[in-house]
Amino acid sequence: MENIFILMKEFLSTLSIWIYRTISVYKQSHNDNILESKEYQSESRGRKQKHNTLLDVIIALRDFNRNNQNYFTFVAKNVHSGYNKINWNKTITSSQAIIQRGSPVYIEPVNRKKMVNFDEELLVIYFSILNYIRETHGFSFEINIQYPLISCDKLKKSYIDRNLGCRRLKQIKYKYFSDKALRIWDLCYAFFDREYKIAMNRQSEDYLLAKDFEHIFEVMIDTLVSGNDKQNLPKELTEQRDGKLVDHMFVGQGLIEQSDLTSELTYYIGDSKYYKRSKNDRTQLGDKSIYKQYTYARNVIQWNMNLFLDGDGNGAHPQLRDALTEGYNPIPNFFISARIPNKKTGGGKFLSFDDKELKAQDGGVQLNRQFENRLFDRDTLLLCHYDVNFLYIVSLYGRNNKSAQAAWREYVRKEFRNKIQGTLNRLYTFRTLQPRDSMDCYQFIQDNFQRLNGKLYRPKSDSNYLILALMKDEDSDIWNSLKIKSATIKRETAQSKELLETLQTHFYVSDPFELETEFHIDSIDNVGTLEQQPKQEFRNILTGLVRRTDADYSDFDSHIAKTYTMEKIPTSINVLDIRYFLPMVGGEIDGYYKVEKVYLGTKNGNLCLKLNLSSFISLGSSRTPIYRIKMQPGELISNDLMVELYEQRI
Hints:
It contains 21 helices and 23 strands. The strands form 7 sheets. A 6-stranded mixed sheet has the order 17-21-20-18-16-23. A 5-stranded mixed sheet has the order 7-8-9-11-10, sandwiched between helices. Strands 13-14-12-15 form a 4-stranded antiparallel sheet. Helix 1 (2-29) crosses helix 14 (390-399), helix 5 crosses helix 8 (179-192) and helix 9 crosses helix 15.
């Protein structure tokens, strides 16, 4: 029981320091009305009081240092006066002299020996304590005296943990008589022994009061996660036109593939919540918070689309939309909640200020979509929820150590990516598609756009491969938690199998893989290309003449003909290529027919070619003469040539 009391007392003492430091650091950069402050007025030599927190001692140390700089300078000068002066008596009696120009010169003079000075030792301990507090807790102390200080590591392990500080101070206490020296001794001893009583004026305490700590928590997370990146983003992204303010935002590696190009990165959007936790140690998010977070992402996507549609991208911003597949780079979207590791599940991390881990909250995945099985659709938005150790966050922010903050920022950004990738791996199966040689894969994508929409994404604008994401059916629990019906999962997975078979005709389809930190693709020989191929000229329109004297002239003239007989079978064409028929009615054209059937027949006992016609397709209201001028019957021409003939462009 006593150990628990000591542990809790130490915890509260440390927590009070970090809360104080957090508010102090916040105050340096945010001059708003959520803080109230009162400066510590003066030190007191009144009745000794027992201190409940280390913060009291640190403030007393800080104020004594601030108000007694002249005293420290005076002591240092006295301590060092006379050092390194020559002891002439010993030099003359113990050293040999060289006579130069009639005068003795001593090559090895004897200096006065430096004795242990207890005033200096006390100051070394005092300034070592200040340096330790500065390095450990981020307080700003002015240390102008150049003493060889005790290292922070030695002070912690020996002077604090092994109580060497108290023992050594007791050994040298009898040397001090002045009020200043005794006050320094008191302060140092109180630092090493928290039960020691020192004099403080309890009515003139230094305090900072925060009326809205939730806002300070948001600022802490933004400083530690976004850094300066958020400030460098366009204001339209963080201060959106509908009045919404994004808490945290930065540009980072995409979830599919890593890249060094800004255009191939993505936006990370976060919101921090400082809410009371439920009995099951979860933060309950309201519908309004979730809706706002989705709206943030939608606004960012639309802003990004407008940027590139207007031609203002210039490679300086991530390009979320892939022009080939019209797929969208998924946007990592997340909540951050504060938590303190509890005693039951925290283990050794209980009440720890050193636990920097980012943890996914159980059941903290939300999915908003308009269509199933379309990860790369612009309206498919994944929202994850993570916890950070509140104690670690306040200590890291309060320490105000930029390098330590940058190190955690790098760690937590990688963790966001890794953990969101892990969630996607539970939801989807990923494959790479590489084009087969001699296949028009570009046209295949256009022709099958409806089936492929939202399932394909090209992670790099010049990559010769695509990423295919299909709904996973192995882990139904996560789909159930997202309220996706089992019938929907079965239907989509069945359609996915059919789609895979279709894709095999034009692509090399890889085995399933999981998203990882580094993306790897199999090397395949003789792959094709995803680039648009030159449009092939399909000659599938047969020309034919309808004379004014023919029995079916009126039908062709009225665009209601159903058959056509070509008495002379053309030998220079492949009749199997015939898809359409262009009748030169009286030598003129104004439209063509779709051919339903091509077959051989007889007319007047002679072999002939017969066509069954269906719908008539008009070229225009006027008629253009082409017979014998530009075209003969029995030729196969392309659609482009037919249009040029009709418009008299050739």
